Amino acid sequence: MDKLNLRRELNAARSALSPEQLRANAIKVRETLLEQPWVQMAGLVACYWSTGSEPDTHGLVFALWKHGATVILPVLREDDDLDWAVYDGPGTLAPGRFGIMEPVDTRRGVDAIRTAALVIVPALAVDRRTGVRLGRGGGSYDRALARVGPNVPTVALLHDGELIDDVPAEPHDRRIRYAMTPSGLTSLM
């Protein structure tokens, strides 16, 4: 299946999830991820503020911040690349482009992700055999992931059923090291 049709299928499946299922999924993902020693030790975490039916990151971001991690969240630039700014608590976000909540803190630049000890990204699906991530199609996270060092854990948050076989890959697609679903954490490399 091509990327466009796969995205349509995955978005339709996400739209069918109930609010109760989305909440239950968020709790399972957050609790399992926070149990990982490499998550607990990460001093600087690049994450994202979820929207719609994406696996919810709001509680995860807050928990990381309360634990003492510096959490940077993306700020979508006009060229669709990702700038980064520090999350400093629930009252420090404002709607950005497309209504996505972004930190109001000073922008740290596109290269801020280079210093992250852990990178958590959105995905519609991840290929369980190759680690290829399917995003929404803008390429923003592929550009950001290209700046991440080879030893930095990268985690895509997914709903069950989104860790699949045969995600179409293109040369610019970046691979992910871990897929996190409500059913558990899967190492892909």
From TrEMBL:
Positions that bind substrate: E54
EC number: 6.3.3.2
Enzyme class at the top of the EC tree: ligase
Cofactor annotation: Mg(2+)
A Pfam family that the UniProt record links to this protein: 5-FTHF_cyc-lig
Gene Ontology BP annotations: folic acid-containing compound biosynthetic process; tetrahydrofolate interconversion
InterPro entries found in the cross-reference section: FTHF_cligase, FTHF_cligase-like_sf, NagB/RpiA_transferase-like
Record key words, sorted: ATP-binding, Ligase, Magnesium, Metal-binding, Nucleotide-binding
GO molecular function terms listed in the Swiss-Prot or TrEMBL record: 5-formyltetrahydrofolate cyclo-ligase activity; ATP binding; metal ion binding
Amino-acid positions noted as binding ATP in the UniProt annotation, renumbered to this chain: K3, L4, N5, L6, R7, R133, L134, G135, R136, G137, G138, G139, S140, Y141
Reactions mediated catalytically: (6S)-5-formyl-5,6,7,8-tetrahydrofolate + ATP = (6R)-5,10-methenyltetrahydrofolate + ADP + phosphate
Organism domain of life: Bacteria
The family this protein is said to belong to: Belongs to the 5-formyltetrahydrofolate cyclo-ligase family.
Name recorded for this polypeptide: 5-formyltetrahydrofolate cyclo-ligase
Lineage of the species this protein comes from: Bacteria, Bacillati, Actinomycetota, Actinomycetes, Streptosporangiales
